[in-house]
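Sanity check

After download, print the first record. It should look like this:
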Amino acid sequence: MTEGRVRATVQQAEIPMLRAYRLWFEHTRKCADGCKGSPRAQDGCEDGRQLWGTYRLARIGKGGTTS
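Expected structure tokens:
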């Protein structure tokens, strides 16, 4: 029999603000509808602007998690 050690898996939760920013950033890298190469988030496509708005809300602590 092996030792009875219990291994706890610690799941690192992503901070909502950083998750929202990551989702926006990944979108802008792939978006061909205006986000890629746009100097401002407000100049991107509708999805990009929505993701940026979600990030802004998360940054000030007003929710803003996207699934």
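If your output differs, re-run the checksum step. Summary of this record's structure: Helices lie at 16-30, 46-59.
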